């Protein structure tokens, strides 16, 4: 489930019974409960650093909370619950699996125990409909010595607009509550709480060295991969698969971009592992893209054709299911954990080559020249009537230029940023072309086996027209890239 809540620190003597919410809302007391909570983490508190928590609560079982999102007072995060009557046996296997990218080869152990008295109130609208729950927790941290704190949480019902949190929060502040974004787990750790995740953002600018640029680029994509990992495993959001695949591709591109300044053996080995990971993610991502694309096409067909296309969707769902199972197997392999371990280490201490190197803007612009040359060479080989495969190679080259320009962007000038934007636009045009070509080919190959192929033929014509339209837009997109590269002196 997705948790949406606001949190407040409250002083001794604070009571929810005394909070006035106005005419349209009211709090209905529902009693109190006592429970004990055990949080588990690695010895170096990695979960806490990344904003996750894994706990066992008496009477409820195990809960894994993923890193929060959202701005302002309202915190949103995924919350996954697992059965488990006791904390003694440790977290269940599925909980460990969802946290695998963060825990990796470390062991988990209990790191803090809490005893809580919770006072619960149901939030109701004027019609009596429940719109949320407000709880006042009196928390005792069992340490040496033990200590206590009190906090109020207001969790909104799934269908309630976020604006309700602002209204309730204003009333709670009037009553003496202080806004608090720190999770109960982090707060209970006290002075032991880590300042942040193990992959630290590296500030880069015009004077940055190759090592700083490498660390910043690898760190950004490693964070992207790790934060999307649990959602990829859950299978609830196709966008998470997309983001994880982009992370793997960017990392490979960054190793190529910074290749002249890296240890060549180290970069080649890591690049090979990222190629493997990209293939695992790519199978599911490609299936997701085609399913979404053709499902949208079918919605635009006449009703009788849409009904006739039901077997097409079943075939795509079957393909997607196989790809998901293959990816799940890959993510559970020790090889994947080792890749993430290497990426975390690379974000901290990449293996650099030897010799002096330029820095700042001169370095940045020099690193973008090779991918610009590769793109020019690919375009120069197209000919008058380029094949689909040749245009796909140009797309890959445009993506490489874009990633390189973005990787060095903070140390480069605006001219490099313009190259990145133009290359991104060209990549999008050729991406649409490639998606249309792949979808059309898949439809054509399966139409002969379809029970009612007429609808499939209509869909194939749509894809042929989409590919042709993208081809027509490509020359203008390339013209903008070429102008941007010339202006940047590439």
Please tell me about this protein's structure.
The chain has 490 residues and is α+β, with helices and mostly antiparallel strands. It starts with a strand and ends with a helix. It has 15 helices and 9 strands. Strands 1-5-4-3-2-6-7-8 form an 8-stranded antiparallel beta barrel. It has 2 domains: 2-192, Hypothetical Protein Pfu-838710-001 (Beta Barrel); 210-487, Alpha solenoid (CHAD domain), CATH 1.40.20. The longest helix has 36 residues, at 264-299.
Q: What are the key terms here?
A:
alpha+beta, 490 residues, single chain, 9 strands, Hypothetical Protein Pfu-838710-001, 15 helices, CHAD domain, 2 domains, 55% helix, eight-stranded antiparallel β-barrel
């Amino acid at each position: 489930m997705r948790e949406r809540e606001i949190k407040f620190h409250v002083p001794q003597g604070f009571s929810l019974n005394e909070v006035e919410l106005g005419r349209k809302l009211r709090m209905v007391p529902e009693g109190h409960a006592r429970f004990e909570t055990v949080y588990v983490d690695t010895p170096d508190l990695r979960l806490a650093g990344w904003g996750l928590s894994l706990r066992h609560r008496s009477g409820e079982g195990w809960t894994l909370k993923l890193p929060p999102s959202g701005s302002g007072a309202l915190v949103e995060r995924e919350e996954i619950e697992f059965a488990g009557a006791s904390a003694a046996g440790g977290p269940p296997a599925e909980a460990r699996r969802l946290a695998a990218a963060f825990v990796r080869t470390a062991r988990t152990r209990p790191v803090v125990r809490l005893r809580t008295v919770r006072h619960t109130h149901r939030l109701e609208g004027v019609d009596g409909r429940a719109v949320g729950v407000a709880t006042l927790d009196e928390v005792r941290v069992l340490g040496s010595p033990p200590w206590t704190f009190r906090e109020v949480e207001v969790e909104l019902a799934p269908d309630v607009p976020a604006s309700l949190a602002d209204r309730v929060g204003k009333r709670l502040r009037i009553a003496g509550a202080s806004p608090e974004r720190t999770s109960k787990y982090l707060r209970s750790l006290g002075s032991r709480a880590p300042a942040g995740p193990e992959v630290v953002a590296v500030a880069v600018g015009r004077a940055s060295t190759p090592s700083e640029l490498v660390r910043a680029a690898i760190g950004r994509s490693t964070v992207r991969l790790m934060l999307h990992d649990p959602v990829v495993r859950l299978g609830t959001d196709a966008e998470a698969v997309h983001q994880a695949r982009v992370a793997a591709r960017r990392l490979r591109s960054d190793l190529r971009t910074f290749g002249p300044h890296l240890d060549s053996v180290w970069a080649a080995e890591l690049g090979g592992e990222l190629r493997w990971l990209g293939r695992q993610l790519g199978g599911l991502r490609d299936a997701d893209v085609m399913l979404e694309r053709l499902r949208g096409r079918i919605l635009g067909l006449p009703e009788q054709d849409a009904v006739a296309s039901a077997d097409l969707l079943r075939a795509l769902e079957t393909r997607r299911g196989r790809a998901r199972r293959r990816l799940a197997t890959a993510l559970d392999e020790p090889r994947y954990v080792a890749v993430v371990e290497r990426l975390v280490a690379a974000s901290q201490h990449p293996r650099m080559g030897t010799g002096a190197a330029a820095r700042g803007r001169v370095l940045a612009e020099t690193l973008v020249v090779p991918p610009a040359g590769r793109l020019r060479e690919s375009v120069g080989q197209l000919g008058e009537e380029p094949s689909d495969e040749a245009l796909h190679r140009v797309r890959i080259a445009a993506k490489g230029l874009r990633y390189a320009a973005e990787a060095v962007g903070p140390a480069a000038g605006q001219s490099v940023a313009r190259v990145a934007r133009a290359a991104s636009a060209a990549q999008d045009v050729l991406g649409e072309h490639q998606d249309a070509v792949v979808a059309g080919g898949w439809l054509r190959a399966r139409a002969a086996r379809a029970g009612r192929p007429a609808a499939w033929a209509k869909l194939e014509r749509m894809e042929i027209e989409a590919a042709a339209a993208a081809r027509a837009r490509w020359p203008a997109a390339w013209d903008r890239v070429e102008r941007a590269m010339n202006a940047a002196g590439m």
